[in-house]
Design goal:
27% of the residues lie in helices and 19% in strands. It contains seven helices and twelve strands. Strands 1, 4, 10, 11 and 12 form a five-stranded mixed beta sheet that branches. A five-stranded mixed beta sheet has the order 3-2-7-8-9, with no helix packed on it.
Amino acid sequence: MFETTQSSRYLPPQEVTAEQAAVEQSLVDTVVASFDKTEDPRLKQLMQSLTRHLHAFIREVRLTEEEWNAAIAFLTAAGHITDDTRQEFILLSDVLGASMQTIAINNQTHKSATEATVFGPFFVTDAPEIPIGGDIAGEAAGQPCWVEGTVTDTEGRAVPGARIEVWEADEDGFYDVQYTDHRVAGRAHLYSDPEGKYAFWGLTPTPYPIPHDGPVGKMLKATGRSPVRASHLHFMVVAEGLRTLVTHIFVEGDPQIDIGDSVFGVKDSLIKRFELQAPGTPAPDGRDLSGRNWARTRFDIVLAPAEV
């Protein structure tokens, strides 16, 4: 599908006669006008703008019929591989930066509020609850990591009772839902205490590739792009009267940050220091780590007002 053929090699800009341009523009105008009677004004705006931009792309690159057929085949393959646990279209949106652009538009910066980033395809709604200081890892493999911080608003006031969802891949780069044994590991939710504090044990994040055995993976390979995501830990924080935050934290010093995160999710403010602790170093909660090394990090979360 993405193999380079003689007919699909780079085409230099083509001369388009005034007569041909008029024919093409007439079609654009006709398709745009076909949505004029749309009752929902927002739907009308979306469909007409989509039409203009889609036709502009086709005209700019002088799309060939062979390329059009390849695009249809690509979308068909994305539909076929999508199921209850894999959403290839979200993956496509992610690697094209469309997901991050949508997040940027809908989560505008506000004072000191923590920045948002991509949601990702592996969140589940029924993750178990743990107490503060509990362990989200379950049986997932990886280096133990103590994560702590506070939840405040942009005025510095503590936010008690904030629901904090956390989830991550194991050291092999897989989320629990990618296994077939129905395990629940590497995810949980907890609540901030009356002072806005929270803490839990997780795993030190490691880099992993997004699913790349399907059409999106073939596209990345054909374009010389890596499917690997920078090491990260997911958060979703919900509190009454405040904007829901969906974000990650990333590992300072991870080489993949410089190489490039495959879904463009890294933001400088979200890169945190994960400090390695030597075997035998006492854990913050007195946990027996059986002589293993472990890491710790701090992530203070600041929530924006719901209406900004």
